[in-house]
Design brief:
The chain has one domain. 2% of the residues lie in helices and 61% in strands. The protein is built from 1 helix and 11 strands, in the order H-E-E-E-E-E-E-E-E-E-E-E. InterPro entries: DUF7781.
Length: 160
């Protein structure tokens, strides 16, 4: 028999045991930018932590106008070039991006599209976000993070 106020062996002792939240830094970008005659030229150094450790460099060209609809991306290490649209909102939390790219290693030309959202991903309950800090004119520091979470199982029963 259990004493009142003490949890049983089957019940978790606290909310910490019911919910599991894992906050992971997932990406770190250094973006060097220079504006020349209506075009922003950027050199990005991108370090990824999750799901695998990876480093990418990119040269990015995009117009500065408010009507900007595209950007040009060159990834010299991967030998790729791409013209990509800006993110087009479909709903409050869902965006689509389309583009065409060429890989010089494989000599392949391909249409690309990407649906993205800040909620969910990879079959895991996940929230993703990015934060950018302007360190000084021409250099931005951006870090991305994700929070994986598991919600507690809720069960119940109605008795007659």
């Amino acid at each position: 028999m259990m004493e009142p106020g003490l949890p049983s062996q089957d019940e978790p002792a606290s909310w910490d045991e019911l919910c599991d939240i894992n906050l992971v830094p997932s990406e770190l970008f250094f973006k060097f930018r220079k504006e020349i005659e209506g075009i922003r030229i950027g050199v990005n150094l991108e370090f990824y932590n999750a799901p695998i450790n990876d480093v990418q460099t990119m040269l990015v060209l995009k117009p500065l106008s408010a009507e900007r609809q595209w950007k040009f991306i060159c990834k010299p290490i991967r030998q790729e070039i791409r013209i990509q649209s800006k993110k087009i909102p479909l709903t409050k939390f869902l965006n689509i991006q389309v583009g065409i790219g060429h890989n010089f290693k494989t000599n392949a030309l391909a249409w690309q599209w990407k649906l993205n959202t800040c909620l969910g991903g990879d079959g895991i309950s996940r929230i993703r976000n990015k934060t950018t800090l302007g360190l000084f004119p021409g250099l931005d520091f951006r870090f991305g993070w994700r929070a994986d979470f598991v919600l507690p199982e809720v069960t119940g029963q109605v008795l007659p």
